[in-house]
C-alpha cells in the first residue's frame, strides 16, 4: 500500500510538471516490483493511462513516432480500447501512415459502432485519401445520428465536387477554378481541404494577401496540424515581403516528419528574404555573410547565388560576381 501511495504521489508530481513519461517510468518500475498478480495488474492499468498522456504530449510536440509508440504501449492491457485505438490512428495519420491509421480507426469503430467520433475520424481519413465513395457509403449505411456527421457529409460532397476545381487548376484556368470553388467554401466554410485549395489558387494567381488569409483560416480549423498549411502561408508572406512574420510562423513547425525538406526550403527562402532586406538598407556585409551561409548548406541554391552576385557586381568585383551567376 505504501508503494502504491508513493507511485500515485510521484505520478501526480510528474503530471504537474508536464512530464507524463516520468509517471510512466515510475509505474513501470512499480510493475517490476509487484509481488502479486493483482498488484501487477492494477499498476499496469495506471501505466497504460499515463502512456496515453505521454502520447498526447508527444503528438502536440509533433513527434508522431513517439506518440505511436506510447499509444501502442497504452493498448497493452486492453488492445480493444476504442479511445486509444483512435489516438493511435491520429498519430499514424499525422505521420502519413494512412493504411495503418485506417486500420486502427476501423477497429475502433467496429468495437463501438455507435461511436460518432470513431466514425467521423474514419470518414475524414478516407476523405484525405480521396476515397470519397467509400466514405459516403459508410455515412449512408451508419445508424449513428449526429450533427457533426451531417456537416461532414456536406463537406464530403463538396470535396467530391472539388475534383473539378483541381482539374481546372492543373489546366492553369485559375480564375475559373476560383469561381467554381468559392460557392463550395461558402457552403462548407470549415472544410480545411477546400480552404487550402483556395489558398493554393490565390497564391498561384499572385493574390498573396488573400492567399495568406486563406491559409491562416485553414490553420485555425485544422485538427491535425498540416505543416503544408503553414508553409503555404509562409510563402505568401514572403511574396508580400514580410520575412519577420514568415519566420515567426515557420518557427512553429517541428524539424521532423515528411514535410522536413519543404520546411528546410522555406527556411532558406526566409533567410534569402532577410539577406535581401539587409542589402536594401545598406548592410551589405551582413547580407554577404547570410547568403554565403545559405550556400554553405545548400550549394545549389540559385536564388542565394544570384543575391550574392548582385552584391559583388556593383563593387566592381566581377570575378566573384560571375562565379555566382
Describe the 3D structure.
77% of the residues lie in helices and 0% in strands. It is built from 18 helices and no strands. The longest helix has 24 residues.
Which percent range describes the beta-strand content? Answer: under 5%
Instruction: Please give the number of β-strands.
Output: 0
Shape, per Cα inertia axes: flat
**What is the H-and-E element order?**
HHHHHHHHHHHHHHHHHH
| Biggest sheet record | none
- Class based on secondary structure composition and strand pairing: mainly alpha
User: Distance between termini?
Assistant: 75 Å
Quick gist of this model?
The chain has 325 residues and is mainly alpha-helical.
Characteristic terms for this protein:
single chain, 325 residues, mainly alpha, 18 helices, 77% helix, flat
Write the layout of secondary structure elements.
Elements: H1 2-16, H2 20-32, H3 37-60, H4 64-74, H5 82-94, H6 98-111, H7 116-128, H8 132-141, H9 147-170, H10 174-187, H11 192-204, H12 208-221, H13 227-239, H14 243-250, H15 260-280, H16 284-297, H17 302-312, H18 318-323
Helix pairs in contact: 1-2, 2-3, 3-4, 3-5, 4-5, 5-6, 6-7, 7-8, 7-9, 8-9, 9-10, 9-11, 10-11, 11-12, 11-13, 12-13, 13-14, 13-15, 14-15, 15-16, 15-17, 16-17
Amino acid at each position: 500500500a505504501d508503494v502504491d501511495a508513493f507511485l500515485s504521489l510521484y505520478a501526480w508530481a510528474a503530471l504537474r510538471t508536464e512530464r507524463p513519461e516520468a509517471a510512466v517510468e515510475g509505474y513501470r518500475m512499480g510493475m517490476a516490483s509487484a509481488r502479486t498478480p493483482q498488484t501487477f495488474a492494477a499498476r499496469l492499468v495506471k501505466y497504460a493511462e499515463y502512456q496515453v498522456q505521454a502520447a498526447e504530449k508527444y503528438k502536440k510536440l509533433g513527434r508522431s513516432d513517439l506518440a505511436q509508440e506510447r499509444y501502442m504501449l497504452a493498448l497493452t492491457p486492453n488492445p480493444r480500447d476504442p479511445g486509444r485505438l483512435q489516438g493511435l490512428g491520429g498519430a499514424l495519420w499525422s505521420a502519413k501512415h494512412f493504411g495503418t491509421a485506417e486500420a486502427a480507426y476501423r477497429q475502433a469503430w467496429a468495437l463501438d459502432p455507435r461511436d460518432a467520433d470513431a466514425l467521423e475520424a474514419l470518414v475524414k481519413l478516407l476523405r484525405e485519401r480521396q476515397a470519397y465513395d467509400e466514405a459516403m457509403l459508410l455515412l449512408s449505411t451508419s445508424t449513428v445520428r449526429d450533427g457533426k456527421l451531417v456537416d461532414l457529409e456536406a463537406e464530403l460532397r463538396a470535396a467530391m465536387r472539388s475534383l473539378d476545381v483541381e482539374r481546372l487548376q492543373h489546366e492553369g484556368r485559375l480564375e475559373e477554378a476560383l469561381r467554381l470553388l468559392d460557392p463550395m467554401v461558402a457552403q462548407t466554410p470549415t472544410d480545411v481541404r477546400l480552404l487550402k485549395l483556395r489558398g493554393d489558387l490565390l497564391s498561384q494567381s499572385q493574390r498573396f494577401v488573400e492567399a495568406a488569409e486563406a491559409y491562416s483560416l485553414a490553420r485555425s480549423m485544422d485538427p491535425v496540424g498540416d505543416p503544408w498549411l503553414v508553409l503555404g502561408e509562409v510563402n505568401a508572406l514572403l511574396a508580400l515581403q514580410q520575412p519577420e512574420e514568415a519566420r515567426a510562423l515557420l518557427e512553429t513547425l517541428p524539424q521532423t516528419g515528411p514535410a522536413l525538406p519543404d520546411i528546410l526550403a522555406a527556411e532558406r527562402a526566409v533567410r534569402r528574404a532577410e539577406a535581401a532586406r539587409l542589402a536594401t538598407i545598406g548592410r551589405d556585409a551582413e547580407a554577404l555573410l547570410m547568403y554565403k551561409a545559405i550556400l554553405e548548406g545548400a550549394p545549389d541554391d540559385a536564388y542565394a547565388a544570384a543575391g550574392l552576385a548582385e552584391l559583388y557586381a556593383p563593387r566592381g568585383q566581377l570575378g566573384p560576381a560571375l562565379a555566382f551567376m
